[in-house]
Amino acid sequence: MNNVLIIEDDKEICVMIKDHLEKYNYQVFFTLTGANAIERIKELSPDLIILDLMLPFISGDELIRNIRKFSDVPVIVVSAKSLTFNKVELLRLGADDYLTKPFDLDELLARIERNLLRSQKDTPHLCLTFGELSINTSSKIVTVADEIIVLTAKEYQLVELLAKYPDKVFSKQNLYESIWQEPFARDNDVINTHISNLRKKLKGEGCRIKTIWGLGYRFAK
C-alpha cells in the first residue's frame, strides 16, 4: 500500500483527494499548513507528496527546496497558478509534476501512478532480511530459507510493518488501525488470529514475532 501525504490548506480538497485515492488502496494523510510539513514528511516517510503552492507561513517553492535537502520523494504540485514560468521554475527546484486547479481526480491518480512507477524503477528494491527470513518490500514476496511463503494481503502488511521497525512494540490498536484503517474495538481478536497464522507460516522464523504481555507485539532482530 503506497503512502501519500497531501500538503494543502483547503480541507475540502484534502478530503476529496483522500476519499478518491483510498478507493484505489492508497493510505492518505494530510496537513493544512506548511509550518509542520517537514516534520510530517520525516515522520511518515511518504511515497509521494501532493503539494499546494499557496500555503500559510511558508510558500510551496520554499518547501520544495527544503524537502530536496533530505529526500527524493516524488512531489506533484497542484496550484491555481498556470503560468509556464512558474511550472518551469518549480520543476527546476525539484518538483516532479504540476497540475493546475481545478483538476480531474482521475488525472491526478494517473499522474500519481506514473510518478510512483518512475520512482520505484529508480529505487533499489528494499529487502528486509533476518536470519533465513527475507521480505522484499517492492515485490511483496516473503521467503524463508529461499522458499516462497504465501501470505494474505493483511498478513503481509503486518509482517512488513513489524519488520520495518524491529524491537518497536506495537499495540493491537496500533497494528489494526494502521492496516485495516478503521477504529479498533477492544474485543476484536483479528490481530491475535493473524499473528498466530503468521508465526505458523514463517516456520522457524515465526518466533521473531514476540508477544509483550499487556502491551502488544514486537519483531526481534
Description:
The structure is a single chain. This protein is an alpha/beta fold. It has two domains: 3-122, 3-Layer(aba) Sandwich (Rossmann fold), CATH 3.40.50; 127-219, Arc Repressor Mutant, subunit A. The chain has helices spanning 11-22, 37-44, 60-67, 84-93, 105-122, 153-164, 172-180, 190-201; strands at 3-7, 27-31, 48-52, 75-79, 97-100, 127-130, 133-136, 141-144, 147-149, 209-212, 216-219. Strands 2-1-3-4-5 form a five-stranded parallel beta sheet, sandwiched between helices. The longest helix is centred in the middle third of the chain and has 18 residues, at 105-122. The two termini are 24 Å apart.
Protein topology:
Blueprint: E1 3-7, H1 11-22, E2 27-31, H2 37-44, E3 48-52, H3 60-67, E4 75-79, H4 84-93, E5 97-100, H5 105-122, E6 127-130, E7 133-136, E8 141-144, E9 147-149, H6 153-164, H7 172-180, H8 190-201, E10 209-212, E11 216-219
Domain Response regulatory: 3-116
Organism: Gallintestinimicrobium propionicum
DNA-binding region: 125-221
Largest sheet: 5 strands, parallel
The mean pLDDT is: 88
Query: What is Rg?
Result: 20 Å
**Low-confidence stretches at least 5 residues in length (pLDDT < 50)?**
none
Assigned CATH superfamily of the largest domain: Response regulator
SS content category:
alpha/beta
Number of H- or I-type helical stretches: 8
Cross-sheet strand order for the largest sheet: 2-1-3-4-5
Instruction: List the domain count as a whole number.
Output: 2
* CATH topology type of the largest domain: Rossmann fold
Q: What general form does the structure show? A: elongated
The number of distinct β-strands equals: 11
CATH architecture of the largest domain: 3-Layer(aba) Sandwich
Strand content: 15-25%
Q: Class of the largest domain in CATH? A: Alpha Beta
Modified residues (4-aspartylphosphate): 52
Protein name: Stage 0 sporulation protein A homolog
Keywords: DNA-binding, Phosphoprotein, Transcription, Transcription regulation, Two-component regulatory system
DNA-binding region: 125-221
